[in-house]
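Researcher: Please predict.
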Amino acid sequence: MAVSAHYQRLIELAKKDSGHECVVAHPCDAVSLEAALHARTEGLFDVLLVGPKERIEEVAATEGWSLDGIEIIDTPHSHASAEQAVMAVLDGRANLLMKGSLHTDELMHAVLCTRGKGLRTERRLSHVFLMDVPSYAELLFITDAAINIHPDLCTKADIVQNAIDLHLGLGLGTPRVAILSAVEQVMAKIPSTLEAAALCKMADRGQIKGGLLDGPLALDNAISLQAAQIKGINSVVAGRAQVLVTPDLEAGNMLAKNLSFLSGAKAAGVVLGARVPIILTSRADSGETRLASSAVAAVYAAHVAKSLTTAL
């Protein structure tokens, strides 16, 4: 399996600090079980499987995969799998969580509600795609395309901060963050332009930290220097953005899928804002992107652990 240079760097980083345990919620089909076993084989982390034991063992036997040395917590159905997976994190048995063959909203419910608070923190959960686009020199972060449907200003601030923290945690440096809208002017009739301007001012005031923000920016002048110059936009972000913050989930989802299916981009992804990174696998993902998603989560988990140790 050929792996892009961007993803290979993250995989190698994850291998250097591989003392992680990932709990996998309901890996009852070949795609989700393979994602967990592949990451384990590559040395990214060890795995704890949670789901109906007979079904998991049947999938492994059908595919010819060994489960030797892997613990399975037996559960009757997907709801119980999600809850027990979150419990494993709360009990300190794992510092990564991976979605198996259950619905995302089912897992997220357990993440937010198990034992009352679940894996909540003061930060809102959000999803980040790390897209390897053939025509773009750097990894392109797109957020949020999977969790927050119509985020308000406060939620968008958390979405931006999550993406910045991830960029920094992966060793990619201070990110250039474009807050996207349909136009680059602030216009009262387009609420996303007002929120973009507010987010930039929040960054100026230290309410959002660690990144360079500009917005509103249309997509063309966020990623094309030529388009930015034609529009007369002069900023460190315009034309060279590394993080694209979309107005809502629909825009983010369509942008990510457009890049994947029309431009041949690859899309690793992770959910942030919980106590641990959450890996969302999809049947449409390639083995490469599933492995890259696991690597992203593992590297970021190591970064968070080191930050907490330093703080103490």
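Model: DSSP finds eleven helices and eleven strands in the chain.
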